[in-house]
Design goal:
Elements (H helix, E strand, L loop, with lengths): L18 E3 L6 E3 L6 E5 L2 E5 L1 H6 L1 H7 L6
Antiparallel strand pairs: 1-2, 3-4
The protein binds zinc ion (ZN).
Zinc ion binds next to helix 1.
């Protein structure tokens, strides 16, 4: 089944897949999970998974500006 009727447009990704990985343990995630913690360091966003966010909660709070909280 190499040829599908009207399926010529398929194959290309419409949008860039947001491949997020935990900045600490490298756990991949599809899109920004709501349970993950987003930390901005040096202008770049870094996401931490639920486990790492708990472990790094103190460090993240110290790095983040008060405006984020
Ligand atoms: Zn992690």
């Amino acid at each position: 089944m190499t040829s599908l009727p009207g399926g010529s447009d398929k194959g290309g990704s419409a949008a860039e897949p947001q491949s997020l990985v935990c900045a600490r343990c490298g756990t991949p995630a599809e899109g920004p999970p709501p349970t993950w913690t987003c930390s901005v360091e040096n202008g770049s966003r870094q996401y931490f998974c639920d486990r790492c966010s708990r472990e790094n909660l103190r460090a993240i709070e110290g790095r983040l500006d008060s405006a984020w909280w």
